[in-house]
Amino acid sequence: MAKTAGIVLIGNEILSGKVTDANAAYLCRELRQLGVDVRRITVIPDEVDLIAASVGEFSRSFDLVFTSGGVGPTHDDVTIEGVARAFGTRAVRHPDLVRLLDGFYNGVLTEARLRMAEVPDGAELYWAGSLRFPAVVMGNVHVLPGVPEIFRQKFEALKERFRESPFHLCCVFVSIGESILADHLNAVLLGHPELMLGSYPEFSNTEYKVKVTLESKDKVYLDRAVEDLLGRLPDGSLVRIER
Amino acid sequence: MAKTAGIVLIGNEILSGKVTDANAAYLCRELRQLGVDVRRITVIPDEVDLIAASVGEFSRSFDLVFTSGGVGPTHDDVTIEGVARAFGTRAVRHPDLVRLLDGFYNGVLTEARLRMAEVPDGAELYWAGSLRFPAVVMGNVHVLPGVPEIFRQKFEALKERFRESPFHLCCVFVSIGESILADHLNAVLLGHPELMLGSYPEFSNTEYKVKVTLESKDKVYLDRAVEDLLGRLPDGSLVRIER
């Protein structure tokens, strides 16, 4: 079984359409390449109770959880408090972060700035790679900032911790429509119940009508399923294969 | 109170990073313009039980629910079945859709094609605008296809049904950082507790450091809050205002 992950995006700006999130799509691609199975994404407002409920549920349901957004010094940055409540604890100032901020702000530490030194009580700091500011990890929950360049920097620094055995993927492009293809796909699944099989129609594509994706962590199993599908396709309906 | 909405994206291809969803961002922008408050987005795999659980929870929690994806003739198209279960019912063939498909496929109706005639028992069909294929609506749940151009076509045809009183928005761009701005924002919120107030820092922008968004359905309330904020900003820190 692949390790599972859940992603919690926190931010009114996404829900109100002011900002198009880029972090979830990036993280899905990265985690897939690492062999991790993303099972769910949720996007919620900057509200402590909702963050606590979502993070708690995700932490119990998945091996790894990543949050994006809601860390910073202003009133709408309530992710740390929400994650703390999800674990039945509270936010506390971490002495290492206070020292770091003290250096960054030349000793001028206001209450607002000190909010950025807060972590859920019991959280760990990961000083991986070239990070100037560490990543905050509470249990299996990795707290990442919403700003895409910093989100990626932090994930890049951490990502080798999450590497698993890879997924193997094969894409088969066909010139027949989904309603004809459906029976062949069902037959393939009957013989290969563990196969991850996707079917994606294109309506304004002149090269092919459907892209079929076959995936497995077991290369031999995948190859057999691909052979099975190719053997079933009507003559002339295969456009190309991509491995 | 604004009408609330929840969005359920259904598709392994999004979670596995093969496809970047465009429907949620589009729908968030559109619904905001219509005056509707999107409260949550969830992205889940093509699994009947998960769809039923998510759609059921969203249908009870929000005024309007929109699903994207998982409608079609193949094994991974299980949204109709999931929505049906969310309402404690089952999928049935709708005679109007059978007739429509019969015309579309010149009378050659396979089992796979007939799956596209299925709706949750009790669902309504909305033949709005120039739609060739109607939208399926079960209770407050609007079932939309995942393919972006068709998703938009269907939403466009339906959208006037959802129009509410509008949100009024004012963006204030400032040259001071969030950690200085935070106290002013807190003061504005203290005097205007119903204000929707966002603070979005930019780290590689030479024009401004933070974009502050102030929003309300009450124009007079918004204007007062904006005046309050402007009066509090340190001299020379205002870059520009966008209404």
Quick overview:
The structure is a homodimer of 243-residue chains. Chain A has helices spanning 12-15, 23-33, 48-61, 79-86, 95-104, 111-115, 148-158, 178-191, 219-232; strands spanning 4-10, 37-44, 64-68, 91-93, 118-120, 124-126, 135-138, 141-144, 168-174, 196-201, 210-216, 238-242.
Number of helices of chain A: 9
Give the strand order, joined by hyphens, for the main sheet of chain A.
Answer: 2-1-3-8-7-6
Give the low-pLDDT segments of chain A.
none
- Coarse morphology of chain A: elongated
* H/E series of chain A: EHHEHEHEHHEEEEHEHEEHE
Largest sheet of chain A: 6 strands, mixed
Calculate Rg of chain A over CA atoms.
22 Å
Number of beta strands of chain A: 12
Cα-to-Cα separation, first versus last residue of chain A: 22 Å
SS-based class of chain A: alpha/beta
In quaternary terms, these chains amount to: homodimer
Proportion of beta-strand residues of chain A? 25-35%
Percent helix among the residues of chain A? 25-40%
Q: Biggest chain pair contact, residues each?
A: A-B, 63 and 63 residues
Instruction: Give the overall average pLDDT of chain A.
Output: 96
